[in-house]
Amino acid sequence: MRIKISKENDELLYKLKTLYNFKNDGIVPRIAFSNSLLSGKIFDIENDIIPSSDGKEFRDDKAIFGTVIGNGSNTIIFKSILDQHYGRNTFEDEFIKLFKLHLNHGLEIWNGKIEKANISKGDHIDILLKVVKSGLDLRKNVVKTNISSKNIDVKEFEDLLTFELGQTVESENVVIRINDLREFDNRNIAIAGMAGSGKTQLMKDILYQISKNTNNELKFIFFDYKGEGNPEQLKPFLDATKCEFVDIVNDGGIEFNPFLSINLDERQRPFSIRAFVDTISTFVPRMGVSQENILITLINDLLDSKNGGYPTILELFEELENYYEENNIRQDTLYSIIRDLSTNIFNCNPNNPNILDKSLYLNLPPALSDTLRQLVVFLLLRYFNSYFSSTNDCEPKDHIFPLRYVIVIDEAHIYLKNKNARKALEELLRLLRSKGVIIVMLSQGVEDYKTKDFDFASQVKLPICLNVQNKDYKAISNFVGTPSSKYKLETEIKKLESGKGLINIGEPKMIELRQWWKTKKNENI
């Protein structure tokens, strides 16, 4: 989690840190934040002006929130306090915005008192002690609650998972301990690299290492949007990862029923159907409110007729076809897309086998329209979101965060260009990070991850920059994070070429990337 405060707050932070002789930069923000909450202040992030981000950046949340025993971040404690204050569960970007608002407010309160205080008499110490006393008094009235419930049993990989990205110029292996909370509080990965940069070969190598190092316990799905996968050429990779290759066009569809994302609980069902229809309307051009309402009505009727079961996409199309004929409605985009979805795209097995029980390489060839390929991906992502949201958050053990699944989204820029699709991706990144799901996005440029309404790099702890077309320093630094040395990053950017990558862990490092084709040869796979 990266938090960048305003220049004005940065100056106040330095002033108060110096006044109290605090050794750590994070102490003042924590006290100021608490001071604001104690005042009872409630902000509206939709209408209140969020403080600017032109000051100090806290790239590691441990630096601003501190650590607990075992060197784990205190972030969860501060988030829990904020959630209790607002009476709801806040997403990460909401938490960051509200934290910045309360930090600004708390610093104003604190500094206002300091301005009126007699420092030589120690009034500033009294100001601090009053805040501490107020917090201790408040603590007496806190009621401990436990509202979590486990609805679904999910297989977890509970050991440390490591994989190598490659080697530095000094021949030092770059090892990623992806679920070690002392190093990563966020397991999402973003890779940027143009065609020929080696990003797909790197990704296959990472998946191979994940499968090998977990004894194939941790399953994955790889969405190959380009649809260039060849089962014969991929056979060594598929065998090594125990992964099933599915070509949507040539294999008769994927064995999966997209309706499984709908919650059949009487209270949840209307919202779940609405979310399902929203997913379709996101990618279907010129789909209006009346078409959405038709779809909602038909799905409701089908679910009622199934008495606790799920219909198939073909059954939905048959009902839609009848509805259009009976009401003399001309075929439109909704009709076309449901018809196409019902034609060997989803093989809806009535036994509803769990798609998460095996690793999948999903090939989406260009024979399918862009609309259909994108919709297939997001209907599956909708299911993953629904499924994992019904589970408890993972419980870390000895600073190791359990893992449940890996989702790899190739050509992510295709979705990031779509406003509604990137909102769904944003939600996925937020909700599934606590569920033990690693989400990996691959795109062609670093600028793809920063949209006008959301910075996806802020949800990623491991950004990897390969050879990209746009080598603009500002764009790359925004993607990989503010470096310890601007000169060092600028120097490393100039070295980017095919097969090499840049990370910014501790300091900017250039890596000779691992490539699956090399691993296959070296390990005789």
3D architecture notes:
With 525 residues, the chain is α/β, with parallel strands linked by helices. The protein folds into three domains: 3-140, no CATH class; 162-247 and 355-523, P-loop containing nucleotide triphosphate hydrolases (Rossmann fold), CATH 3.40.50; 259-342, no CATH class. Helices cover 43% and strands 12% of the residues. It is built from 18 helices and 13 strands. The protein has helices at residues 7-20, 27-38, 61-65, 75-86, 92-116, 123-139, 199-213, 231-241, 269-283, 289-306, 313-326, 333-341, 370-389, 413-416, 419-432, 473-480, 486-493, 516-522, and strands at residues 3-4, 57-58, 162-168, 173-177, 189-192, 220-224, 243-247, 359-363, 405-409, 437-443, 462-465, 500-505, 507-513. It has a seven-stranded parallel beta sheet with strand order 7-8-6-9-10-5-11, sandwiched between helices. The protein has a four-stranded antiparallel beta sheet with strand order 4-3-13-12. Helix 9 (269-283) runs antiparallel to helix 13 (370-389). The longest helix has 25 residues, at 92-116. It starts with a strand and ends with a helix. Residues 137-151 have low confidence and may be disordered.
